[in-house]
Amino acid sequence: MDNTYLSLKYNSKSRWLSYWYQISKALEVSPASVLLVGKGSGITDNVIKQLSGGAVKIVTLDINYAVQPDVGGDVLQFPFKDGSFDAAICCQVLEHVPFNKFGAALGELSRVAKKRVVISLPHKRKHLKLSFHLPFIGEKTLIVKHPLTLKYCTSKNHCWEITRGVSRKQVVHEINKFFDIEQEFLNELNCNHRFFILKGKKV
What we know:
There is one protein chain. The protein has 203 residues and is α/β, with parallel strands linked by helices. Helices cover 21% and strands 33% of the residues. The protein contains 4 helices and 11 strands. The strands form 3 sheets. It has a 7-stranded mixed sheet with strand order 3-2-1-4-5-11-10. Helix 1 crosses helix 2 (43-51).
């Protein structure tokens, strides 16, 4: 296993909430099979196996063989037949390919997943966050963009990030070619993770 993922620093409290969103949104459609693109720490696939009692067949795919995926492969060309899975999860992965190939990766996810695709992308920006609890309503979090956000990507590992090199509007435009966006939201503990819950467009 790649030690990059085997630390509490990497698997922070805020990242655990991202894992929870990945798992819960995939399981909402009662899938019999799930493709996990980007195995990472192995937390997501192991929790899905345990929560489903092994009833959900989960296949992990990663270009990094050190994390011991079920299948080694590239997000731009999956070695699976059309409609092989009920759901697919691809979180904090697509920013590692150039944005001019983002659409091709989305096309592959659309091709293999029948019911739902869960993706998250880095939305790197400064922000202001206010959390409060209201009677009869519950806890609410207000997240406001900070005006001094950098406009270029500074990551050595990412080709692009939302608001740094690519706008949210450009990302949504590409997504809409293949999917209907059922939900879009930020991880309220890690506002750099923007989630898109997707359903393939009917042909």
